[in-house]
Each structure stands twice: as structure tokens, then as C-alpha cells.
């Protein structure tokens, strides 16, 4: 019933990723961000993530990925998401 819609959405996502990968500037930007994060951790720094709406959830998830084990058994990395700063709508629910 929804198979065509699902295929179309997945094909569009694959095309978007392929286009993203073709632009070397994107790869360099990600590398720069990774180096900045690694350098910060090595210097005793931490990541502060923030967002509004859906980005709030992304920020919280990112901090959880840093402080947890993520893909391998390793100590958590210093990341922080201040839950006291949730949007009012989230606090009321």
C-alpha cells in the first residue's frame, strides 16, 4: 500500500546523501569539526549542546552519545545538555 511512498522517500534520502558526499567541502567541514572536538577534549574541554524544538532533542541525543559509550566500550566524553533550559512546552507536559 505505502511501498511506493517508502521507496521514494528512501531514494530521495540516498540521492541527498550522494550529493552531499560529492562535495569535498562537506567532508572537510566534518573533519574540521571532529578535529576541533578532539582538540577540546584533549585540552580538558567539553561540548555544550543546545537547540530549540526538534533541535533540542538532537542536542540532548548528541550529549548522550558523548557521555555514554556510543559504538564501543570507552569512557564517556565530556558533554552537557542543561535540561533545566527545556522549552516551556516540554516542561509543562
TrEMBL record:
Keywords: Isomerase
Record carries keyword Ligase: no
Keyword match Isomerase: yes
Listed EC numbers: 5.3.1.28
An example molecular function term from Gene Ontology annotations: carbohydrate derivative binding
Domain SIS: 37-93
Domain of life per record: Bacteria
Pfam families on file: SIS_2
Enzyme class per UniProt: isomerase
Residue segments, region Disordered: 70-93
Gene Ontology BP term (one): carbohydrate derivative metabolic process
Transmembrane segments annotated in the record for this chain: none
Protein name: Phosphoheptose isomerase 1
Source organism of the structure: Klebsiella pneumoniae
